[in-house]
């Protein structure tokens, strides 16, 4: 990865859109910003986990919808399509993973591991979406699908347990 995709621009700390796109600063981590972004999404998940499923779904939907222009604008401003520090997509992907998940830190850990697995490995069609969809939608959509895959696996584990 080149330095342009790794270096945290100072605008992250001044521009509210960049700050949100960088997961409230979590994407500024010098290594594994996606992992740190996913970790930073957990406290917000804990705040929304008790919502009725429809309300929880609406939070995800709003997060996705606002993420498209926020991540797209930040990427345009930085001149890098999917800067590694843009991690708002990890927030939404993890929240999708945890949709209807049981409460408890074991489930949070399982969801975290599953989401990171699918986000890093990018099996079909995630890899295709990652390469072929541009702009804010392109930044968001691969993590949405990774979250869906992880949610399906998590629910399968819940069913087995």
* Strand residues, percent: under 5%
- The run of helices and strands is HHHHHHHH
Low-confidence stretches: none
Task: List how many beta strands DSSP finds.
Answer: 0
Tell me the span between the first and last alpha carbons.
40 Å
Mean pLDDT: 94
Structural class by sheet pairing and helices:
mainly alpha
The domain count comes to 1
**Helical coverage, percent range:** 55-70%
Describe what this molecule looks like in 3D.
By secondary structure, this protein is mainly alpha-helical. The chain has eight helices and no strands. It has helices at 3-6, 16-21, 33-48, 53-78, 88-97, 105-121, 126-132, 135-160. The longest helix is centred in the middle third of the chain and has 26 residues, at 53-78. The N and C termini lie far apart (40 Å).
Secondary structure topology:
Blueprint: H1 3-6, H2 16-21, H3 33-48, H4 53-78, H5 88-97, H6 105-121, H7 126-132, H8 135-160
Helix pairs in contact: 3-5, 4-5, 4-8, 5-6, 5-8, 6-8, 7-8
Question: Can you tag this structure with a few keywords?
Answer:
globular, 8 helices, 161 residues, mainly alpha, 0% strand, 70% helix, single chain
Nutshell version of this structure?
By secondary structure, the protein is mostly helical.
